[in-house]
Design a protein that fits this description.
Layout lengths: L2 E3 L13 E3 L4 E10 L11 H17 L8 E9 L4 H12 L5 E7 L9 E10 L2
């Protein structure tokens, strides 16, 4: 089981952890950057809808490996500048609940498709032993 640690000497994180230790006998599952595109290929227009769909896509990909959101070790969020990060955080909490993996969030000028407002890369850990 992955251990999340927030040692003294650094600020207390809110909603994420500073470090994660993945034990031996664990496979790492890397998810490509996920965006808010629906299974039919359409893209919602609002950040809220895109963030919800993005995290739904992540949940579906994790389930394909027999995993849940609690297996996530690291999230990297890319949010288009000018968008409200609180909207993305709210969607994240819907998926993660109290689970607090390591995390990075970055504002960027644009994603590959100008309609896209948010993207998330994920690393998850799957016990094999």
């Amino acid at each position: 089981m992955t251990t999340f640690v927030n040692p003294p000497g650094v600020h207390t994180p809110i909603g994420y952890s500073h470090t994660a230790v993945v034990p031996a006998g664990t496979d790492l599952v890397f998810l490509s950057g996920q965006v808010g595109v629906r299974p039919d290929g359409s893209t919602p227009t609002t950040l809220e809808e895109q963030a919800d769909q993005m995290f739904n896509n992540i949940t579906t990909l994790l389930q394909a490996h027999g995993l849940t959101a609690s297996a996530i070790v690291k999230l990297t969020l890319f949010v288009v500048a000018g968008q409200d990060i609180r909207t993305v955080r709210a969607a994240r909490v819907k998926m993660l609940g109290s689970h607090a993996p390591t995390s990075t969030a970055v504002f960027i000028s644009q994603l590959v498709d100008p309609k896209l407002l948010v993207e998330c890369e994920v690393i998850a850990a799957k016990q094999t032993a």
